[in-house]
Amino acid sequence: MTFEIGHYAFMAFPQTFMNSLLGMWTQSDRTSRRTALQELFRPDAHFHDADGEFVGYEALEGFSDSLQSRFPGARFTLTAATTIGNAIRASWTFGPPERPDAVTGMDFVILDGDKISRLYAFVERPDE
């Protein structure tokens, strides 16, 4: 997956990039997930959300494992994605098949070339 920042192809397809990112979090096959991580993230990428800051592939995989253990069977659904410059803003829902919109949120991605250098997840939990 290669996108050129500022090129029309990237501008037209932030949805493709974000669907890959969101799918990676719930990918249960570790080999496939590591491949996706390496395609999407810089090795020193920073991910920030309410659970903390996660830096690098090992920490990102640990977050994914934790997400899957806390919410078995839950999946993300992309609802909107836009880009400007080297950033992507995306809205999503998350939940199990019987309640796919249990949680809503927004990701803000900063790219360095065609890979994520920073990811910020803003989560609206049902109890908030």
Describe this structure in a few short sentences:
It contains four helices and six strands.
Mean pLDDT: 89
Number of strands: 6
Q: Treating each run of at least 4 consecutive H or I residues as one helix, how many helices?
A: 4
| Low-pLDDT windows of residues | 1-10
Q: Helical proportion?
A: 25-40%
Strand content: 35-45%
The CATH class label is: Alpha Beta
Cα-based radius of gyration, to the nearest Å: 14 Å
Order of helices and strands: HHHEEHEEEE
What would you note in describing this structure?
By secondary structure, this protein is α+β, with helices and mostly antiparallel strands. It has a single domain, classed as Roll (Nuclear Transport Factor 2, Chain: A), CATH 3.10.450. Helix content is 34%, strand content 41%. Helix 2 runs antiparallel to helix 3. The longest helix has 15 residues. The radius of gyration is 14 Å and the shape is globular. The N terminus is likely disordered.
Summary keywords:
six-stranded mixed beta sheet, 4 helices, alpha+beta, globular, single chain
Question: In terms of topology, how is this protein built?
Answer:
Elements: H1 8-12, H2 14-25, H3 30-40, E1 41-49, E2 52-55, H4 56-70, E3 75-84, E4 87-95, E5 103-112, E6 115-124
Parallel strand pairs: 1-6
Antiparallel strand pairs: 1-2, 3-4, 4-5, 5-6
Helix pairs in contact: 2-3
